[in-house]
Structure formats: structure tokens, C-alpha cells
Amino acid sequence: MRKLTSLCLHSVHILGDELEYFLSNSPALKRLDLIACHEIICLKIPCMLLQFQCLKVSLCWELRVIESKARNLSSFILEKGPRAIKVSLGETLQMKNLSMVRSGSDFICYARAELPSNMPKLETLSIGSSHERVATPMLPTKFLFLKHLSISPPSYDYFSLISFLDASPSLKTWLLDVRQFSFNPATIEHETIFGGSSQLRQMPEQHHGCLKSMEIKGFYSAKSLVELTCYILKNAKSLVCLKLDTTFGDPKCDILPPGAGCAEWDKDFVMEARRGAMAIRTYIQDKVLPTVKLTAVEHCRLCHPC
């Protein structure tokens, strides 16, 4: 396979050592996709793959170790896999695209502290964490080339995520996905904007001239989420689009007859989504400049009258 440049294995019964032997005899390989290959426990990318650039692993539930020694790896995507997985990527100075959404605890804090120096050429970053014991720190290190950011955090101090914005002078798009927590109000640990003091925290003004689009999926009434949104509206002078989606998915009532397309969500979830919409109207809507298009997505009241 000396001329093979791209390989995709889907539901293939192959062991890790068999795959390693195959890769060792494919010196021209540039891309490897593994999907639902359940017999691989340890994946090793050998160092002789000098042209290898892209590795994507998905739905490999038995995988426990990923070890890459490929020096020119520039894209690594790990999705829909086991949480208990050890990843070693070797030299990462060429990394431009990193996606590790289902990661272990404190990974968001680790990404902010370590990735600017370990992966200085990052342009696209998608990260998630199962639990964060501490808020994201403010640090002097920068993601100088980062243009697209996606974060799926646990329920914690969302306001601390401004650390990523302040560290990314070239950032153009930011997706924040908190649906897994807004969907289940029992997991919400932090203060709602409608409980106690409504005084919002302030940070010194930082002008961000590149951010064009911000989207928050699963927007709810967490006070720190409102504070983060208001900070962006105040400081991201180039912002064009702001989308705040209080639903758990894409509502279908806009394409089907009323009452025919919406899922039947738990009443508590719908009520929290309603509070999220109220928070938008009360604390955010009047801060949106005329140059910014605000899209607030709510459940339709015909399907969810509560």
C-alpha cells in the first residue's frame, strides 16, 4: 500500500496490532478515519508516517489508548467514544484542528493553560469536559491563530470562559453548548439570574475586533451565562450575529403544522427554557446594538403552553 493516502475503516473487525502493522506499510498515508471499530483497544500511529496529517476516531467504544508519533499531525478529532481514554499525540506544534468534546474532568482548564504553548498554530478548537472543579483561569498566554472555538462545558461559572475570548485575538466564531445541563434542571448548580442579586459582574473593557458570530445552545437562566453574554455584547465590537437557543434541539414547528412537530419535553425543562427566554428579554435584548442580529429561539407555545 505504498501509494495509499487515505483510509476509512467502518465497523471493521481488526485488532490494534494488526492495524499498526498495516499503517507501518503505508508510508504515503495522510488521513485515517476509524468508525465503530470495536476490537481496537490500543491505537498506535507509527513515526515513519511523515505525511500523516489527519486522524479521526468515532464510536470506537473499546478504545483505551491513542498514541501518535506522527510529527506532522495537524488535525485530530475524537468524538462519541469512551470517556476513560488516554491520548498521547507526541509533537503537536503543527496541530491546527483539535476536537475532543467528550474529555475527562478539568479538560477545559487544561486546554486554556497548556494548549497555547503546546499547539501554537491552532485554528479550530472543539473541547468539552465532564466536570470542572475550578473556573477557567485568566492567563497571559494567547491562541494567536485561533479562528473557530466550540466549548461544551459542565454546569459551572460560564463567566470565566471570557479567558478564551481574551486569549484569542483572531477568533471569528464561537459556539457554546450547554444543552446537557439546561435539559436537566436538577443538574444546575449555579445561581439563576432571577434569584438573589441581579447585579452583574464586570471586567475591564477589552475590545475584540474579529468575533463575528456567537451561538449559545441550551441557553438558560444561569446568572454567569447572562454575564458572559453581556460581556460579549459590550466588548466584541465586530459582532454581527448572536443566537441564543433555549431549546434542546431544532424546533420543527416552523416546517410542520402547529403541534405536529415538537418533541414532548419534561415540564421542568420547558419551564427552565421559559426562564431563559425571559432572561434574554430582561437583561440582554436592550444591550444588543443595531448592527447585531439577535436570534432568540424558544419552544412554540402551542406545543408547550406551560
Automatic annotation (TrEMBL):
Residues 1-300 form the At1g61320/AtMIF1 LRR domain. Signal peptide: none annotated. InterPro entries: At1g61320/At1g61330-like (IPR053772), LRR_At1g61320_AtMIF1 (IPR055357), LRR_dom_sf (IPR032675). This is At1g61320/AtMIF1 LRR domain-containing protein. It comes from Panicum virgatum (Blackwell switchgrass). The lineage of its organism: Eukaryota, Viridiplantae, Streptophyta, Embryophyta, Tracheophyta.
